[in-house]
């Protein structure tokens, strides 16, 4: 499908990955976000990118952002303590998109709506039985899109991602480990760190999204995109320290410590209910996606770590020439 594509929530790392995939194909696209300065900094040099700001609270602004669009890729994030906004913003976006005649919506989703895994790995048709508030809000968001698809007002599909990492991905469980390894410090991790886990390398996501959105058979359901294999936080951190030539140094934070820190930190407070993902991990089976799309290349962990470290060092070198505000590097699971 060659129609206009709009990336709602384009400033995030997944949005940048999708934009890079579209750019590689020579396809024009629209980036939509709240901050013009942020969009300009990230996409202003790409002649294929059209920059549009929006206010999701204003129906006219939503319609203007969706005007002339055929495919809308939805990646709008909220603060971790504001998950109640996910279905609210989806409803406003769908109303504007439908009013403007948008043909289809691709929602970038998460494993949260599955709740506790009944099977390992989890297939696409696993029941959605969220055991957390965040999972319920994400399920409500999905249900709004799927209901409009069933009603025939707009086509919708959902691509579920595991936790992710990669160059510039600061909101990741692994980010502080990369920084600590480069600095020769101890990595602070959310434990347990030997549980099976999977991560997707962010640059691998964009090409999958563009293939999925162009596939008519993709709509009306959700699809899993698994990581580059089952691993653990410990294995990836050990590989990270190995690549920088330093012995691994790790400090773990258990659920009790998270709860204690959460008394003073709203993000950590919200992380408590999602701790089950460390003890009862959701590992995804994406065989149906691969059957639909064919080859789904994934960067091996060692190579993904190498590129992430290289990008971090490059950013450090650039910052030394032109200092920028330091990032907090707070660990965060896929939202």
From TrEMBL:
GO terms for molecular function: aldehyde dehydrogenase (NAD+) activity. Pfam families: Epimerase (PF01370). GO terms for cellular component: cytoplasm. Residues 7-225 form the NAD-dependent epimerase/dehydratase domain. This is NAD-dependent epimerase/dehydratase family protein. It comes from Myxococcus llanfairpwllgwyngyllgogerychwyrndrobwllllantysiliogogogochensis. The lineage of its organism: Bacteria, Pseudomonadati, Myxococcota, Myxococcia, Myxococcales.
């Amino acid at each position: 499908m060659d129609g206009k594509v709009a990336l709602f929530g384009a400033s995030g790392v997944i949005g940048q990955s999708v934009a890079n995939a579209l750019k590689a194909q020579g396809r024009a696209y629209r980036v939509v976000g709240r901050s013009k300065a942020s969009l300009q900094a990230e996409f202003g040099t790409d002649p294929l990118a059209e920059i549009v700001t929006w206010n999701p609270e204003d129906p006219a602004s939503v319609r203007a952002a969706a005007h002339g669009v055929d495919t809308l890729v939805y990646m709008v994030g909220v603060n971790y303590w504001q998950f109640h906004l996910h279905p609210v913003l989806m409803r406003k976006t769908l109303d504007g998109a439908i009013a403007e005649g948008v043909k289809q919506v691709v929602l970038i989703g998460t494993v949260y709506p599955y709740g506790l895994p009944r099977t390992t790995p989890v297939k696409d048709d696993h029941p959605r039985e969220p055991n957390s508030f965040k999972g319920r809000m994400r399920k409500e968001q999905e249900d709004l899109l799927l209901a409009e698809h069933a009603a025939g007002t707009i086509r919708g599909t959902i691509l579920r991602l595991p936790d992710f990492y990669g160059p510039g991905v600061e909101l990741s469980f692994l980010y502080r480990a990369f920084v600590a390894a480069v600095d020769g410090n101890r990595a602070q991790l959310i434990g347990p760190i030997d549980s099976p886990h999977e991560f997707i390398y962010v640059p691998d996501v964009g090409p999958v999204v563009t293939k999925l959105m162009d596939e008519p058979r993709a709509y009306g359901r959700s699809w899993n995109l698994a990581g580059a294999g089952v691993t653990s936080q410990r294995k990836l951190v050990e590989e990270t320290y190995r690549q920088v030539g330093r012995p691994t140094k790790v400090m773990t934070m258990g659920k009790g410590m998270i709860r204690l820190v959460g008394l003073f930190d709203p993000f950590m407070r919200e992380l408590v209910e999602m701790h089950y993902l460390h003890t009862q991990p959701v590992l995804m089976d994406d065989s149906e996606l691969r059957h639909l799309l064919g080859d789904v290349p994934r960067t091996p962990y060692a190579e993904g770590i190498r590129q992430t470290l290289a990008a971090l060092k490059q950013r450090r070198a650039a910052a030394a020439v032109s200092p920028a505000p330091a990032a907090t590097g707070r660990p965060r699971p896929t939202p």
